[in-house]
Amino acid sequence: MACCTHSGVIDEDSIELNILSNHATEQAITLKIGVFFCEILSGCACSDNPSQAMILENSYCELTLRIDRLNAQISFI
Question: Which of 9, 33, 38, 53 has the fewest CB atoms found within 10 Å of its own CB?
């Protein structure tokens, strides 16, 4: 995922979406969404502290998607 800057592994429980803008025509609906999520950064538990083995890094990404009204197909643009 191009929005990931560290590990590329996302904590799925942390995903939150916000609609930033929308536009509708007879053919399609276009949405710009903001996505808040946490990337999982793997560490080591060298000091026998398991809480150091996984760190979450807050991240944000903006995506634009198009929903075709005829067949409900979604594409990211």
Answer: 53
DSSP secondary structure code for residue 20 in this structure? E
Give the separation between CA 59 and CA 55, rounded to whole angstroms: 13
How many Å apart are CA 2 and CA 73, to the nearest integer?
22
- Provide the Cα torsion 58, 76, 12, 39; round to 10°: -30
Phi, psi of 76 (to 5 degrees): -95, 130
The SS3 assignment for 56 reads strand
For the chain, domain boundaries:
11-76
What average pLDDT score do residues 58-62 get? 93
* pLDDT at residue 64, rounded to an integer: 97
